[in-house]
Amino acid sequence: MKVAFPCFGYETISLKNFVENLGAQVCLPPPLTEKTLSLGTKYSPELICLPFKITLGNLIEGLRAGADTLFMAAGARKCRFGYYHYIQETILRQVGNGHKFYPISQYTPFEFFFRKMPSIFSVSPVRVITATYLLLQHSALIERFRNYIRKARILDFNKSRAQEKHALELLEHAKKLSQIRKTKEAIDKLFDKTKIIPDNTIKIGLVGEIYIMLEPFANHDIEKELGKMGVWVWNQRSLYRHLKHLLHIDHLGIKYKFQASPYLKDSPGGEAINTVGEARSFIKNGADGIIHIYPFTCMPENIAFEALQKMSDDYSVPLLSLSIDEHTSQTGLLTRLEAFVDLLKRRKMITQKPKIQNSKIKT
Amino acid sequence: MDAYLGIDVGSISTKGVVITKNNHVIAQAYLRTQGKPVQAIKELIKNLQMQTNNTKIIGAGTTGSARRLAGVMIGADVVKNEIIAHALASSYFHPDVKTIIEIGGQDSKIILLRDGIPIDFAMNNVCAAGTGSFLEHQATRLGIPIEQFGNYALQAKTGVTIAGRCTVFAESDMVHKAQLGISTEDIIRGLCDAIVRNYLNTVAKGKNIQPLILFQGGVAANIGVKTAFERALNEQVILPEHFLVMGAIGAAILAQEYVSENKTTKFAGFRTADIKFITKAFECKDCPNSCEVIETFREGQIIDRYGDRCGKWSENT
């Protein structure tokens, strides 16, 4: 059995190790490129959201690379993501031949551990549970690494490139629990924790749709670009949290739901409620600006956008909204990011001055 | 006399100014980019040089969508995005400005300022409906010089509703209205209204538009759109004196800021106009990302490279 699944940011490594821990061979599709996207666009409905096109293109590439079993995440929540796998399955049946397609996270935890996974991989439920535990550990490590690299980029951008490369190599080989533990120590050592981020660093909270937020190809590497400009990016989304959500143990989700409540009482679907909740908690923690990034025509995020606009007015924190589709140009995106960061810098310069004057008057 | 140079290279037009220390404009030029930015920048430089004989440029800045290329070519001290450039220039000439409406050749933006500081902005995201190039296309189609386009709108007796959400549909709608026998003037006024409606509903959506409102960029030359804005907002809309070259002025002001801090300039001089520049692109084959790398050569020597994701090309220039 050769397994393929769409790339998903750094988290691809966690998923790859998970499948390998279940004893199957991973036939990883090539990294996401313009070719993936044009392949996906060719077979997709025209106005479907960008993640659909990218993942479909990547699955087709996986098939062409020789995979016979395809996995795709699937959501049963109130947005188009819930229908991804039905359409993709139909399209893939026309493109490929004789492969199997499994919409993975659509199953309940019980089905997942005891019925589906054991039968797909012909292993015992115990092995599935162990592999899932390791997946959680590994994705937690990725989350840790993401947080480190965000800081490292501000401190020394060129050095962070080497650190990133090195850390990803380490993560690739962390399969067993002992290896994961060792990798954790190694990554802790790799990033210098003694250096503190200067107080006047611009802090931007990144919120939006999970796939666009975590896959650098989809978001034109927004985090790296912001890091290059010396911005500390706050991003609370990760595969780790998403997995915990699926297992009903995501306590952060409850926190953000509470945070979102003045603006959005009930979830309109997708991750809108997380988007709004995270944005509010970022603002409360002192973020200088919020960047909202989502696929063009995304229903839940468009609703979240309205709430975010009101929030940005109420707290007078600037909001940059970026809707991404396959026509989004890198240059246009960079212009907006650059302008946004400049605006925040100029704002910060002005708002900080009166404070200093005030304190002088007091003393 | 010491002066500062600012260049704004947009999709449709290339603008340049030379300003004094007190931000007084002593020379300005506006010409069409015509898809050849290198040529346009050279011509612009020549033009500005002729206007300013005994001045010495001690700082230069570039902005606009081709700011990077322009910056490399003339040796700019500052390469900045249009938003900051426009905000700076506007708040200098009109210190109480609170809203800037800027519609250019292919993008439109709104900038909100409070006490002279830009606090929020928005740019058209997925669609370029209702920007200058569309207006120009319609003017050509109707056989009206673009400079006269706005006056036609003013002569209209009533406006008709034109679907302004998408330029293609707007055009079909205009054709349809014309075939019903509605006069060109009324249709043009309808088009101006549609552009304003589209702008307010997409770019300026949810933004708190307060007076003083400035209108700049190429489309501001169109009196029809200006009056349509005034009708829709119920506020006076002001055209700054140098509304066409505000971005370039902003770039020059930024250059001035830079030079007063750093005391040196990288400006290559007016001889840029005679130097040969070539830009090439190639696809890097070293990894599956296959990035398109853009290279700029000055007289056969590489001066700039960008477009790679890993940084191995852009770092080695």
Question: Care to describe what's here?
Answer:
The complex is a heterodimer of chains A (363) and B (317). Chain A is of the alpha/beta class and 363 residues long. Chain A contains 15 helices and eight strands. Chain A has helices at 12-21, 34-43, 50-64, 84-95, 109-121, 125-155, 157-172, 177-190, 210-214, 222-228, 239-246, 251-260, 272-284, 299-315, 330-362, and strands at 2-4, 25-26, 69-72, 100-103, 202-208, 231-235, 289-295, 319-324. A four-stranded parallel beta sheet of chain A has the order 2-1-3-4. A four-stranded parallel beta sheet of chain A has the order 6-5-7-8, with helices on both faces. In chain A, helix 1 runs antiparallel to helix 6 (125-155), helix 3 runs parallel beside helix 4 and helix 13 (272-284) runs parallel beside helix 14. Residues 355-363 of chain A have low confidence and may be disordered. Chain B has 317 residues and is of the alpha/beta class. The longest helix of chain B is centred in the middle third of the chain and has 18 residues, at 184-201. The model of chain B has no long low-confidence stretch (mean pLDDT 86). Helix content of chain B is 35%, strand content 25%. Chain B starts with a strand and ends in an 11-residue tail after the last strand. In chain B, strand 6 (99-103) and strand 7 (108-114) form a beta hairpin. The chains are: A alpha/beta (363), B alpha/beta (317). The A-B interface holds A 30-31, 33-35, 158, 161, 221, 296, 306, 309, 312-313, 316, 318-319, 321-323, 325, 327-328, 331-332, 335-336, 338-340, 342-343, 346-347, 350 and B 65, 80-84, 107, 115, 117-123, 125-126, 206, 208, 287-290, 309-311, 315.
